[in-house]
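cron nightly-structures :: item 1 of 1
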Amino acid sequence: MPGRPSLAGRCLRGSRRTGGMGGGGSALRVCADHRGGINWLSLSPDGRRLLTGSEDGTARLWSTADGQCCALLQGHESYVTFCHLEDEAAFTCSADCTIRKWDVRTGQCLQVFRGHTSIVNRILVADNQLFSGSYDRTARAWSVDKGQVSQEFRGHRNCVLTLAYSAPWDLPGAPCAEEAGGLLVTGSTDGTARVWQVAGGGCWQTLRGHTGAVLCLVLDTPSHTAFTGSTDATIRAWDILSGEQLRVFREHQGPVICLELVNRHVYSGSADRTVKCWLADTGERVRTFAAHGHSVSALKYHAGTLFTGSGDARARAFDAESGALQRVFRGHAFVINCIQVHGQVLYTASHDGALRLWDVRGLPCAPPPPRPAAPARGRSRLFSNKVGCAAAPLQPA
């Protein structure tokens, strides 16, 4: 495990400001403290900190105020697959089959969650519960405070890759809401998604229809709708209460890797090198974002701009309304696994081990696209997870 960062690994300031529309430029800062690829990047709810989880078996906390590393989280015995950051605590999961909870002020490990028997690849914290998905074919619910398993969800025939949660109060009038203690939705490489009653652990619905692995999932709780993306190149919308398949989004020519749901629009990133925008309520495709040189591995909508990360080692900014390419961010050497935006800074984390900070001032700051005639069941509340596709190492242009 790494100790004190080497001088060469400290944060370096870029020599140039980011270029103009469609052009590339240097990062404001390159944070190269990790000694392995960064698998995930999480932003705290208050926007003060970032958390990165790495192939080197560590996680690092970063200040968004100055981009400095403020804590090194060491203890996992294998690579960190995913991480989640709250204002007061950080959570990491690993190929060592454990999950760890950390104090964000001291970097001290507060709790180790043991029970999974294979790689833990996804975690989600909500309603004072920790949910996890694993290659051992199970999902689990844990007490955040005690570190003990409160429920196991068994039924998938292969790896559980992605998770989403709906609290009881997000399902007003649903017959299963109160007694279920909320609903957990899981997606698996067995080609199904499942809806579980958290309180009892029973499977409420099995969502069947995909012919390939379910890689990503977003949940719109007011309309009781889950959107799933798969290696079968489709996105499917489901009613999680009835299990009914509502619609199928077909046009991608490769696996759907990541999803984002914003104002009744679904954005999907695919191995076919495009992002597509769809009307969530009808499945109509309204826009295609091209210009990527490899799979689209990450998506983030922010203030009228759609940011993407790709296996071609570049991030891009598009006008979400018109689809026009506004800027290309060059500098990484491998696939970009995750992106976040805070204020006027874009953060990109890559399998090259670097966290890069980019100035996004000058990009149009448009309001979200107008909401089309929508169901009368309330405003979207969004929960999202995605699984990236590995890409061959590339050298930046």
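cron nightly-structures :: done
The domain at 251-363 is CATH 2.130.10.10 (Methylamine Dehydrogenase; Chain H).
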